[in-house]
């Protein structure tokens, strides 16, 4: 059984928009802070994922960039199964990509029953909010940077209900970059150990 893992870069004030993007008031804001061993954490996280689940905008950014890179991480991303949530995309160009359309809850529930391991959701803020609203997220990994941006799309929005989470890991890397791992507070599934 697969489990959905949201992984995000965020500022102290919760902004998750374009941490490495140029089309933003503060381009590449997450790269201004030394992550130290946090780089290795993020790479290991990506290499351990079984599949990617992406919103269309994040998918298009990944699909236009990763095929041009070399190395273990590029090989992983380019070869692994990828699922993009979209009701308009019909012909994805990046290999091993499947489009999920229609009812999000049904599609992701089916995906979780067919993928064994982590289904990683990087970026994809609109998708993440929908996944949280439908209680489809099993784990949230945040890399919080010690900066207040005061501007930009925030990770968390309003939801119709409350959910409980357990902090299972907290580590500081580099110049004060805090990585936290939260698991949905339910009965502990077998994959969580």
What does this structure look like?
The chain has helices at residues 38-48, 56-65, 72-79, 104-114, 125-133, and strands spanning 2-11, 51-55, 82-85, 97-100, 117-122, 139-145, 165-173, 177-184. With 193 residues, the protein is α/β, with parallel strands linked by helices. The longest helix is centred in the first third of the chain and has 11 residues, at 38-48. The relative contact order is 0.26. The model has no long low-confidence stretch (mean pLDDT 93).
Series of secondary-structure elements, N-terminal to C-terminal: EHEHHEEHEHEEE
Tally of strands: 8
Strand percentage lies at 25-35%
The gross shape turns out to be globular
Largest sheet: 8 strands, mixed
| Total of helices | 5
Radius of gyration: 16 Å
The helix/strand class is alpha/beta
Low-confidence regions: none
How would you describe this structure in keywords?
eight-stranded mixed beta sheet; 25% helix; alpha/beta; 193 residues; 5 helices
